[in-house]
Amino acid sequence: MMGPKRITLAMTGASGAQYGLRLLDCLVQEEREVHFLISKAAQLVLATETDVLLPPKPQAMQQFLTEYTGAAAGQIRVYGKEDWMSSVASGSGAPSAMVVVPCSTGTLSAIATGACNSLIERAADVVLKERRQLIIVPREAPYSSIHLENMLKLSNMGAVILPASPGFYHQPQSIDFRKICCRVGASIIKRVGMNKTLIATLLLSIVFSSGCASVRTLDAAQAGAPVIYSGTRLDWYSLQGGCYPVERFGAQAPKYAALDLPFSLLLDTLLLPWALAVELGVGLTVQGGR
């Protein structure tokens, strides 16, 4: 297993809650032990930007996130704002790496000045003083001189400043936030030193998803068209010489259907719960307390 086994993941009140959720998914897939911290402002942003409503109590939140990500029992550990006896607050017990994503400029300032008024700030302070790895993912625009000075201060202390600035080398033809999250998540994972296979998977999903059959059929959303394994079926239909893909699936098959087939199969499998819900007319909105 490459990279740290135990990682602290903190989410604060900047826009970009999806980045934190996506990284949590990746860490769970990598079988890392995640020590999860979230501010009240971040919970509000999460409820605004997504359909995920976290329970307010740490224990209930831990159970919810375990089920939400498919994590093993005890793999995700959630702590409250003032849980000063937790392992992340101690230099002898804290994980060797911490990521704050998204990082608000208020949290950025508090960490840079060593405020330690919350467990998130204390956990970051511990990582810095112990000379461990701290990755800050700020999400703000524009940056003021104060913001930039705080970033410089933390960078001089050894922290990595990794703004949520996705690249566009894959020539996107439309805005798909899943791809943006994948690219930023891959950058974070690379810095933490985790599995290169996972990084490659994330980047391949960016490259191929813009033209893959699954994305095309889902974007088309044609009434009466197949929903379950739609991309896989479109690729197979094309390989069998089908002449009416648009009429049947609402989209043209990719130029290289045989190459696309395994990627569409993978994506269709990941989206199977959603596809089944659509087919059955069931909503997937998660309900719960903040």
Structural class: alpha/beta
Strand order of the largest sheet: 3-2-1-4-5-6
Please give the number of β-strands.
6
What fraction of the residues are assigned to beta strands by DSSP? 5-15%
Quaternary structure state of the chains depicted: single chain
CATH class descriptor of the largest domain: Alpha Beta
Spans of at least 5 consecutive residues with low confidence = 283-290
What is the CATH superfamily classification of the largest domain? Flavin prenyltransferase-like
Assign the CATH topology of the largest domain: Rossmann fold
Overall pLDDT metric? 83
- Overall, the morphology is elongated
From the alpha carbons, calculate the radius of gyration and give it in angstroms: 21 Å
Overview of this structure, please?
With 290 residues, this protein is α/β, with parallel strands linked by helices. It folds into two domains: 6-205, Flavin prenyltransferase-like (Rossmann fold), CATH 3.40.50.1950; 211-280, no CATH class. The protein is built from 13 helices and six strands. The chain has helices spanning 17-29, 40-49, 58-69, 105-113, 119-129, 145-156, 177-192, 196-209, 213-220, 230-239, 245-249, 257-270, 272-280; strands spanning 6-11, 33-38, 76-78, 97-103, 133-138, 160-161. It has a six-stranded parallel sheet with strand order 3-2-1-4-5-6, with helices on both faces. Strand 1 (6-11), helix 1 (17-29) and strand 2 (33-38) form a beta-alpha-beta unit. The chain starts with 5 loop residues before the first strand and ends in a 10-residue tail after the last helix. Residues 283-290 have low confidence and may be disordered.
